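Hello again, I could really use a second opinion on something today. I've dropped the whole record in just underneath, so have a look.
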Amino acid sequence: MKIFSVSAKNILGALAAVATSLLVASSAQAQLRIEISGVGSIQIPVAIAAFADEGLAPQQITAIIKDDLTRSGYFKIIDAGMVINETTPVNFDSWKARGADALVVGSVQKLADGRFDVRYKLLDTVKSSTLSGQSLATAPTATRLTAHKIADDIYEKLLGVRGVFATRIAYVTKSGSQYKLEIADADGEGTQDALRSNEPIISPAWSPDGTKVAYVSFEAKKPVVYVQNLITRARTVVANYKGSNSAPAWSPDGNKLAVSLSRDGLTQIYTVNADGSGLQRLTNTSGIDTEPQFSADGQYIYFLSDRSGGPQIYRMSSSGGDVKRMTFNGGYNISPRISPDGKTLAYISRPDGRSFQLYVMDLASGQNQRLSDTTKDESPSFSPNGKYIMYATESGRRGTLAVVSVDGRVKQKLTIQAGDVREPTWGPFMK
């Protein structure tokens, strides 16, 4: 039997992979720490002034905005060195002389009901005009989210692409004998436990509306696919058949999941309704088919198969059939992920027979590009704007998460102080 992947997502030895790849992580030290390297092909100089009266709020708005924009790799932050609210007249020429193409100003006011009114403006110093402005009524517990939303607005207005600072991520950690599925903001803050278990948890996948996560748990002493509502915490068993139940992936409408099941022998791909009903088999081969992923338009499912003799990535219609092989560069290509615009395929390749590295393929030209300089990569996940990919890797024998821009220029490493972190998945845009 062929072993497809070092990834814990691999159904062939998933329990062993998770058990050996996750080390102890103290809950008190579970905050992700981010290290940034590289910059984007462009860097827009943005001056950010301290918001007037932001000390009234539980979080420092301007600090969060600065951190977000810096982390993106596409902005050069200029510290304004002063407080400027959104109503203060601005001398655009003086800011241009300081090298700023844009200026961010704002204020915080406490409302009678205990909320905060966070106001901000984004000014174009080159054209001496206002690019954007918002007034956001914010609960004290949502101050950080409001700052992320402002950073998203700045990112979109200056780059023409929606920002992802207000999105969330999910990943798996282990502390002693306890596994945890954790949810956090995209910057690693605001960590919450979605599930704790004494058995491995693998393959988390966000629902398209961001309210649920599908995953595989071994708490029944075998891999079973669950869907958990993150609001009510209610769980639904989606697939608990004979043998292995693994690799859940949501359809774009959130009504179905594609899963890999060995109920009828070799592992094949099925679809099932989100409530566990309506099981349908899509592949029927003499090989192993696994790791399905829907395209964003729902027309296709990308998947991993050894039908050609070695693990390669294929595409079929979402109802099965019309199968097309997608990867030919090298003899070992696994873990397909398709970008939100359907133009780019991310995957893990083993080009030298030893290293597992993150690659992307431009589907129009068929050209491949290696994005990572690490050697034990797994579990890639696109950001919802398609501009970044998060994946798991190793550094100093510890599991870490990494983020890289799709052009390979901007790189981040996310670590936990006292343990390993694995199985990342990037959540959708929130409404």
